[in-house]
Amino acid sequence: MPFLYENRQIVSPGDLLAEGDYLAGFNTFRHDEKIFASRLGLVELRGKKVDVVALNTFYIPVTGDLVIGKITEVNLHGWTVDINSPYPAILRTPEALNRPFRAQQDELTDFLSVGDMILAKVISFDRTRDPNLTIHEQDLGKIRFGQIVKVSPAKIPRIIGRKGSMISMLKDETRCKIIVGQNGLVYVSSRDREDERIAIMAIKKIEEEAHTSGLTDRVTELIKKERGGVTQ
Amino acid sequence: MTDKEKVKEKVVLVNEEGIRTDGRKVTDLRPIKLEVGVLGNADGSAYIEMGKNKILAAVYGPREAHPRHLALPDKALLRCRYHMAPFSVEERKSPAPSRREIELSMVVRKALEPAVFLEKFPRTSIDIFIEVLQADGGTRCAGVTVAALALADAGIPMRDLVVACAAGKAGDKMVVDLNDVEDKEGDADVPVAYLPSFDAVSLLQMDGQLTTEEFQQAVSMALEGCKQIHVVQKEALKAKYQSIKEAVEVSEEE
Fold it and tell me: What ipTM was estimated for this complex?
């Protein structure tokens, strides 16, 4: 039996997607010779692989992901970070300081304290232990200015777009610095508050209409319209 | 006691034409209205109206399990709270969880458990809240149906949507989807929760007495009801996104 749906059709958990010689991709599972959807989303067939692009998800850390988090706790040898995930992340001192940590003299809150936002990278996670973060890389570390928008982690690929088409358009059109955390937090910063407002509006629109086609054009239009209103 | 006097008067549950107290035929379900994503604070939510039943479900998670010692090392902890609002029934119900509610919380949880991929999220908890705003019989079934939708809305991976429906015997006739009067005055009630894609039953209870044949008939009637509700359930889930999609894509064409 062939593939039972058209590409980009909405499917719900338990829907039979394909039967026979197919591979179960994202958000699907195999039972006997059948492939079912496990999440509400848009179905896509790529070659022999059946994927469901989820419409709503939560963030499960993956090694190498860039994330934006908030310090929730200062411990003896590091910080606990809320990364918008079921699993709280840990940032240990060797991953934050560029010199040995001296417990006698150093005060952890001098570097990061509760409530600080950080840009970090996930260095390890396997579900049995909480994820570890690092800020030992260029551009990582404490976020000092700008704004942060929260979106559903499912919409992150859409904000980036195919080969970064959406995000580069956003950066050009809004003249903002935009960093997308894989965990659903997006950092937006510009000298002009108005630029930030427009960028946030555009991101919210992408989130809401992520599952529709022709979105890049519509967002470009929105930004141009908003900007037109300001200069007039 | 006026209540006892009422019981003595024999209520006609199914008349000669096979019409029930609320005007349905024996094989008819009550009218269903389902809505998804009704609560802003919850990760997933849904609302059902099934006849006079009005039930709200909210799902939170997966999230860190609190208290910590309850967290399971190999899978997520599924917690469920079924609760009836004080105003959901004619005589005020104490808001404190009663024996019945505690049991139903467990029953609903066990009906949903086989459908959720709990093993994908160890050490976390998934919390389901089912709030009965107005009760008219068959709330556990409606509760399962609406909770499954809320779980799917929260983006929690599931094997299937769970759907539940009851059948039973009232006024010496086999009927599907019993309402409050049929439940109380009738002879038996068989709630069934069902996973349609796998043709599997995840909840089967019986209250009252039935012969073997009657029981088998009740189960098959309940399953038939489940399949009908499942169609509505899937539509409701997709409707939330379909409407946005249609709205923008139509404006595109203009």
Answer: 0.89
